[in-house]
Here is the input.
Amino acid sequence: MKTMKIFTLIICLQILNFAQTNVLAQGVGDSAPDFTLNTVNGNEFTLSDHAGKVIFLFFFGYSCPHCLANGNNTETGIYDAFKDNSDFVALGIDTWDGNKSGVENFINQTGITYPVAMTGSSVQSLYSTTYDRIIVIDQSGTIQFKATSNATSGVVSDAKQVIESLLTTTSTNVFGSIGQSLNIYPIPAKESIFIENLDARIEYANFEILNMSGQIIRSNNLNYLGSGETIELPLNELDGGIYILRLNSEQNTYTRRFIVTK
Here is the structure.
């Protein structure tokens, strides 16, 4: 009997640990899992297709009363504010797996005009969330906001501030003038990026890597970079995220944003 109780306790602890792991999974700072869903209008939405953009997700249940009450908050508080920004994408996800008419009824009642996907219960599980919740993913594919309560006007306001911050701080004019003579690839990058000079030769320049707070985290001198030449810049010491490459030469300052994934 004692052995059975110990065995039962071990099983219960394992179940509890598994549940806690799932609850804590996919939190702020974690990489957003990729997914593909069909939208009501017949298109296909794949998260990774929108890499480099700020992505707003609204999880709802198509006949959930508080989702119906809060849905319009996401339209007026989020989508109306950023819909004209090419670096912003929004998607609603029905996690109750309703049929098309049920989801269309939700859209009509809430006034949502951004794309809405169906049969999203698997994505809800993937993100360890529930319905009437908001998630914001940054340009590098990292979760930067994950609501733990319903999408009320207050929660929408908090999400909006995060989106504004992400869209504003990634604007390269915050960091200096923008040159058109450098090509940086690949984006997103992992182990290294390549810098190609498309213009006249660059002599005696200094290049810097800045984080999104504007802090210089790396600085190196560059004696010469001829027209059409390419240099490789290792990124092993950088965490995943968004960075700014700034090259200061005697002639100009070139500024480019890039994304590192790990």
About this structure: The chain has two domains: 29-169, 174-260. Helices lie at 2-24, 65-82, 100-110, 121-126, 153-169. The two ends are 49 Å apart (CA to CA). Residues 2-24 form the longest helix (23 residues).
